[in-house]
Design a protein that fits this description.
By secondary structure, the protein is an alpha/beta fold. The chain folds into two domains: 381 residues, TIM Barrel; 340 residues, TIM Barrel (Alpha-Beta Barrel). Helices cover 42% and strands 14% of the residues. It contains 28 helices and 24 strands. The chain has an eight-stranded parallel beta sheet with strand order 1-14-13-12-11-10-8-2. Strand 21, helix 24 and strand 22 form a beta-alpha-beta unit. The termini are far apart.
């Protein structure tokens, strides 16, 4: 069988793209130097796949920031406010991604959203009534020719027109259907250009097909491709889907003149049954059988059984990944600290290429049981791998309904907290983290390497905390944080202090732009060994008379931002983690911390893409897992949580049911759209909609923030509104952080004075 890869990690084996791009932002390298680094990385990625003997290698899957943004630029979907900046094309591109503040103007970045059910973020393109979709770029051509110069024939990858139009934000009266004629012309032009190059295949990614679709959606999809496909001539078109099955559109898709269809057999619950029920025509089936989102090795016996079932339906099958490999780390090569007994169970992006090659070979073997590759793989899966903790299982099994319910009711608690805290109207705070400077990272690295003692490291962190408290006090914030200087990452830090986790050295995964994360691996049952944050929070509170929040990461986010086990239901893992965080919450309360924030930034990340699966497969355990964390605290202890960069409108009642006292949301990039939704659902919890975007270096003015607050007050009662940034400040520089927070506090005070003067 032939093999294919949907997409490959862009950042490089050691995050070379991240560092080069950030140097470019700082003016330390030129545009040409950045472009040279990108070219070198692309070539290395193609050569890796060529050496692994992958037959269908992707090109144009590289991006400086995000592929949806690339598609917007390719199709002329650049809002006028960015065109008016009079910047170079690359500078304009980054202005759309990060915002711009300079002599040419002042604009915010495009909204940032979660990419389906992953921890990757995409930039949401915009179309207004004056927009004209047309092919204006040639990146897919340049990438194809660049690979061709290395004697590597690739399939260019482009976000398909249906997914692009489904994910766009429409700013005028026009909607998706109004842009179908322009999209058709643009994609016909893409096929024309590829035909001129004698390209063999092109891959149009249409992950939107795995979501709930109605008849209008299917009609729009059909109208697009009925007009586009007749222009393909000799180039073959692969329709690529991922993150689920295409149950709503399967019949319509298979009736269209695609040469190949890519289906996900990892997350696609009904992918196999759809083929068996409806059949599969003469097209090539690109079967996504190697998991592109998790890092465990493939079970060859199970996959080969699936391939045998597919061969009974499909005449031509290509082995493929279930989705782009950008969602897993680059390679195991640099993991020198992982024990061999652990490492042998993992497959990162490069190792998944080997798995595809192995499966291609094994699919043609008559005597599987005699093949060494097969034997080694089966021996791996026959051996015990997970760490079992009977006490943890007993605690989960012993949970009762009372463990998930906090008393008294929210309204009663709110009155007691108002009296206990005596905070002003529109209290100001931050989400938690403060800038992580090179000095902080250096000290942390020295401590891990044993170059400085635990006492030296503790004194350093304590000094940073004291400095942070002093800065916040000077700025005038009402509720302070300790800055999280001891934490490398909001999930990795907790994983390091909990039993059941494994950690990597270089297993970075792109989250957005230059932001990369290193997810922990859940290896066994999870339990708390000892207090994790209590000493730092207590020290911070001792530095001030103001309230200091204890800062924790919630169980659902820890689970969703880790690589989970495959042998245990997600619900069970979430409850194990929740019990561990519950212990930390109660210890913080006992130590005198009166406000505790339990962040669930990734609450929506594993929400099924189809509404019918929301509760049964996710919300019925995710929301209770959060409630379990805080159900044991006193009424006067205030529980905060934070969520960001997802569309929360559809699950607002469930978020209210988390029963926190205060919830902060990302709001600035989405033009405060969440505020109207909260009001329409009669949201009971106090809220802190983000008043400025921390993923951009621009500094908001006092007037800008004041206007946002006044707009919020039309929808949120003044006694329920908190004032805070969109997210944590870890990635920002110190000067811009101080300036932005100073403006935020000044705006809150100005609006507060207006409220006080009102009758």
């Amino acid at each position: 069988m032939k093999t294919a890869v949907i997409g490959y990690p862009r950042i490089g084996t050691l995050r070379e793209l991240k560092f080069a791009t950030e140097q470019y932002f700082k003016g330390q390298i030129s545009e040409s130097a950045l472009l040279a680094t990108a070219e070198k990385l692309r070539q290395a990625h193609w050569l890796s796949q060529q050496q692994a003997k992958i037959d269908f290698i992707a090109s144009n899957d590289f991006s400086f920031y995000d592929q949806m943004l690339d598609t917007a630029v390719l199709l002329n979907a650049i809002p006028a406010r960015y065109r008016q900046l009079r910047l170079s094309p690359l500078e304009q591109y980054f202005a759309m991604a990060r915002g711009y503040q300079g002599e040419n103007g002042d604009v915010k970045a495009l909204p940032m959203k979660k990419w389906f059910n992953t921890n990757y973020h995409y930039l949401e393109p915009e179309l207004d009534d004056e927009s004209e979709l047309k092919l204006v770029g040639d990146t897919f051509i340049q990438a194809y020719l660049e690979a061709k110069a290395l004697n590597i024939d690739t399939k260019p990858v482009i976000i398909g027109p249906f997914t692009f139009l489904k994910l766009v934000r429409y700013r005028g009266k026009k909607r998706l259907g109004d842009f179908i004629p322009q999209a058709i012309t643009a994609y016909q032009a893409i096929l024309h250009q590829l035909n001129k190059l004698a390209t063999q295949w092109v891959q149009f990614d249409e992950p939107a097909l795995v979501m709930d679709l109605d008849q209008t959606d299917i009609a729009d999809f059909t109208a697009l491709y009925q007009a586009i496909l007749p222009k393909k001539q000799q180039v073959k078109v692969l329709l690529q889907t991922y993150f689920g099955d295409i149950r709503d559109s399967y019949v319509a898709v298979t009736q269209l003149d695609f040469d190949g269809i890519g289906l996900d057999f990892v997350e696609g619950e009904q992918s196999l049954s759809l083929l068996q029920k409806h059949g599969f025509s003469e097209k090539v089936l690109f079967a996504g059988v190697v998991n592109g989102k998790n890092i465990w090795k493939n079970n060859y016996a199970k996959t080969l059984k699936l391939l045998a079932q597919l061969s009974a339906v499909s005449k031509q099958t290509v082995l493929s990944t279930s989705c782009s490999l950008l969602h897993v780390p680059y390679s195991l090569v640099h993991e020198t600290q992982l024990a061999a007994e652990h490492k042998r169970y993992f497959a990162f992006a490069q190792e998944k290429l080997t798995e595809l090659s192995d499966l291609s070979h094994l699919a043609e073997v008559d005597e599987l049981q005699q093949d060494p590759l097969y034997q080694d793989n089966q021996h791996l899966f026959a051996s015990a791998r997970y760490t079992h903790n009977a006490a943890v299982h007993d605690r989960v099994a012993g949970l009762t309904e009372a463990d998930f319910k906090r008393t008294p009711a929210l309204a009663v608690r709110a009155e007691q907290q108002v009296t206990a805290f005596a905070l002003p109207l529109l209290p100001t705070t931050t989400i938690g983290s403060f800038p992580q400077t090179a000095e902080i990272r250096s000290y942390r690295a020295q401590f891990k390497k044993g170059e400085i003692s635990a006492k030296q490291y503790q004194r350093f962190i304590q000094q940073k905390i004291a400095d942070c408290i002093a800065v916040q006090t000077q700025i005038g914030l009402d509720v302070l944080v300790h800055g999280e200087f001891e934490r490398n990452d909001m999930v990795e830090f907790f994983g390091e202090h909990l039993a059941g986790f494994l950690f990597t050295e270089k297993a970075w995964v792109q989250s957005y732009g230059t932001r990369c994360v290193k997810p922990p691996i859940i290896w066994g049952d999870v339990a708390r060994r000892a207090p994790m944050t209590v000493p730092w929070s207590v020290y911070a509170q001792a530095q001030t008379d103001k309230l200091v929040k204890g800062m924790l990461t919630g169980p659902v986010t820890i689970l969703n931002w880790s690589f989970p086990r495959e042998d245990l239901a997600l619900r069970e893992s979430a409850l194990q983690i929740a019990l561990a965080i519950r212990e930390e919450v109660l210890d913080l309360e006992a130590a005198g911390i009166r406000i505790i924030q339990v962040d669930e930034a990734a609450l929506k990340e594993k929400l099924p893409l189809r509404r019918q699966d929301w509760h049964r497969h996710y919300l019925d355990w995710a929301i209770p897992a959060f409630r379990l964390v805080h159900s044991g605290v006193k009424p006067q202890t205030q529980i905060h949580t934070h969520m960001c960069y997802s569309e929360f409108a559809e699950i607002i009642p469930e978020i209210d049911a988390m029963d926190a006292d205060v919830i902060s949301f990302e709001a600035s990039r989405s033009n405060l759209s969440i505020i109207q939704v909260l009001k329409s659902h009669h949201f009971q919890t106090a809220v802190g909609p983000g008043v400025y975007d921390i993923h951009s270096p621009r500094i908001p003015s006092v007037e800008e923030i004041s206007q946002s607050l006044e707009q919020m007050l039309f929808e949120v009662g003044k006694h329920k509104l908190w004032v805070n940034p969109d997210c944590g400040l870890k990635t920002r520089g110190e000067p811009e952080t101080v300036a932005s927070l100073t403006h935020m506090v000044a705006a809150a005070k100005a609006v507060r004075q207006k409220l006080i003067k009102l009758p």
